[in-house]
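R.M. (postdoc): so does anyone remember the format we settled on? I'll just put the structure tokens first.
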């Protein structure tokens, strides 16, 4: 594509990575972020894990980009002085019933080129002496990182390169007609030759502002976290994950010794009452009406009623939350849990209630919309950025 100026909507790690890739390829870029700082939502409110690519369907965008991203994200962090550590993790089966799912994870990991090893209980305890399991997988390429720090490093690179970075700037309207894309914001109008939508929790709304009918709708799920009190935290060396339910899109409650040294426990997954609903009292009539009026949500709720009920119980009962963790590390009690800030996952759901499992992009002339980029999007951000810029090349003005 010839030289042009691109507007990126959204200043999380993915929006900044895409803006950086646009700038690196020689184009002008403006980034509009409605918050006053970068990485305030999904990027800054997660487990801080560099994922390996173990879980994802071989051949999918998630699998390919996560495996590559585990390398490129670690390399970027090290180059720019951002805290990162490749520490590995355990995925533990706590019952015989979980062994088939563990077998499938091992198969996927090997197919995706992930360094994965099967361990017996004794081998698992070499890494985590307090863990209880019937079998485990050891994944060496998993790491921990400061994703907000990565975002700040990218923003600094963009600023030094002359990019137009605008925080506190919410997009209100988009007019893609004519020779340029015209965007009205709370800080004035912006014009660009093309637009990339990385608005995360609001990505489907931004797509509608641009005149598209999104292929899926965002349903927000809150993930609640706790930290372990010091006595309990001393029993966890690194990262301990359960075998996830293959029918449920979330990884289950896990224990993660983060880059800050604290052991984080979570997240569960419950419907958020607003798109940025980090607490039960955070509610939006508009957001809730959109979810409850969407037939895809009700199909999803019926399909996962049992798992959803268990997640709700863990949300309201610290004892139930602790009991789930103690299946992996026996003896964790409700008193060991200290509430930590929650996150909200932007989960794309189709009209039939099917969860969009892979990264989802939708394009139009001069536009690329990232409609589904949940975990492992942060790990894969540099790889997704290259993919988006290739898509942009296909829809950009010639």
């Amino acid at each position: 594509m010839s030289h042009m100026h691109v507007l990126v909507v959204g200043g999380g790690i993915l929006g900044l990575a895409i803006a950086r890739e646009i700038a690196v390829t020689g184009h002008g870029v403006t980034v509009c972020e409605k918050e006053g700082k970068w990485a305030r939502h999904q990027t800054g409110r997660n487990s801080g894990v560099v994922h390996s690519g173990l879980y994802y369907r071989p051949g999918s965008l998630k699998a390919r980009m996560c495996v590559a991203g585990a390398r490129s994200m670690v390399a970027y962090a090290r180059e720019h002085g951002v805290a990162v550590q490749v520490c590995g993790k355990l995925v533990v089966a706590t019952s015989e019933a979980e062994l088939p799912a563990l077998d499938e994870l091992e198969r996927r990991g090997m197919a995706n080129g992930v360094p994965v090893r099967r361990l017996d209980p004794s081998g698992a305890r070499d890494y985590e002496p307090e863990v209880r399991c019937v079998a485990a997988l050891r994944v060496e390429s998993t790491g921990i990182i400061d994703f907000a720090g990565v975002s700040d490093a990218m923003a600094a690179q963009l600023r030094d390169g002359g990019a137009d970075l605008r925080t506190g700037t919410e997009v209100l309207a988009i007019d893609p007609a004519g020779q340029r894309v015209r965007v009205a914001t709370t800080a004035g109008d912006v014009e660009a030759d093309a637009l990339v939508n990385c608005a995360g929790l609001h990505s489907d709304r931004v797509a509608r502002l641009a005149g598209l009918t999104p292929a899926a709708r965002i349903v927000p799920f809150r993930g609640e976290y706790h930290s372990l009190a010091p006595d309990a935290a001393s029993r966890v060396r690194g990262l301990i994950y359960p075998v996830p339910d293959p029918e449920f899109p979330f990884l289950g409650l896990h224990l993660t010794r983060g880059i800050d040294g604290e052991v984080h426990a979570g997240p569960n997954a419950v419907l958020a009452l607003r798109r940025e609903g980090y607490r039960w009292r955070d509610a939006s009539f508009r957001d809730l009406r959109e979810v409850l009026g969407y037939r895809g949500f009700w199909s999803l709720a019926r399909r996962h009623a049992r798992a959803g009920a268990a997640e709700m119980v863990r949300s309201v009962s610290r004892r139930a939350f602790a009991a789930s963790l103690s299946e992996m590390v026996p003896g964790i009690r409700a008193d060991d849990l200290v509430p930590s800030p929650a996150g909200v996952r932007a989960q794309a759901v189709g009209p039939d209630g099917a969860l969009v499992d892979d990264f989802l992009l939708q394009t139009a002339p001069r536009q690329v919309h990232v409609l589904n980029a949940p975990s492992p999007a942060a790990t894969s951000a540099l790889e997704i950025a290259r993919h988006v810029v290739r898509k942009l090349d296909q829809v950009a003005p010639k």
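R.M.: ...and that's the designed sequence above, right after the tokens. Also worth knowing: The chain is about 30% helix and 25% strand. The longest helix spans residues 61-79.
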